[in-house]
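Annual report, structural modelling task.

Input specification for the 3-methyl-2-oxobutanoic acid complex:
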Amino acid sequence: MSKQPPARRITVPQVAARKGGEPIVSLTSYHAHTARIVDRFADVILVGDSLGMVMHGMDSTIGVPLELMIIHGRAVVRGTSRALVVVDMPFGSYEESPAVAFRNAARVMKETGCGAVKLEGGERMAETIRFLVERGIPVMAHIGLTPQSSHVMGGFRTQGRDEESWPAHEADARAVAEAGAFAVVLEGMVEPLAARITGQVKIPTIGIGASAACDGQILVLEDMLGLSPRVPKFVRVYGALGEAIEKAVADYAADVKARRFPGEDEVYR
Ligand code: KIV
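The model returned the following structure:
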């Protein structure tokens, strides 16, 4: 009987090579069981720092500690065998200097087993991206609406509504691509700008609220599953998990109260 070879993970160069080709399917995941399901369909699984809000009830991503990213990153790597797992660098773990970024990103890579890290910022982070990539850490960049800078940006606003702002976003995209990022997330960006950037850079663009003009798409899993109480307008909701959980819990509570619960002899028969 021949043994199946272990599934090989999608690599960073394979994702980079999808520029202009088959669209890259990406989703977030923060825990092993959902990651196992997502792994069958996604090329890239992002352990996003959105987990602070989605899993831990925080108001923003600013308070997410590095240790939390490592715990969830490790769980997602354990639950997967095929997708490229990318772990977000949380606020405060990489901005200070390239050396600090390297120390923390190396910790994330070693302690989770992920294939790459993601960090927010364009031109201002280019030197750090180059420093990490030259030392063996693949980086996915993230520009446009960057939630970790929401205090500076004055909230969560779609970027590029005024054409005068386009050159700065385009310069950000070029800077991260030239610095060696293998892909770039474009978040919350008007379609013409996302299309221009996608046409200008040699690395794949992965959009979230940035139109179909990108080389791939990413959504927060809980948002598209219908589990998040509120979702951004651009999110297409594919499931009704919130309702399904509510119904199941209500049915369970009713069974318990009515003593309609299988006895041990039934369960262990
Ligand atoms: O944290 C996150 O989930 C992200 C995606 C929304 C791109 O950065």
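The chain has a mean pLDDT of 95.
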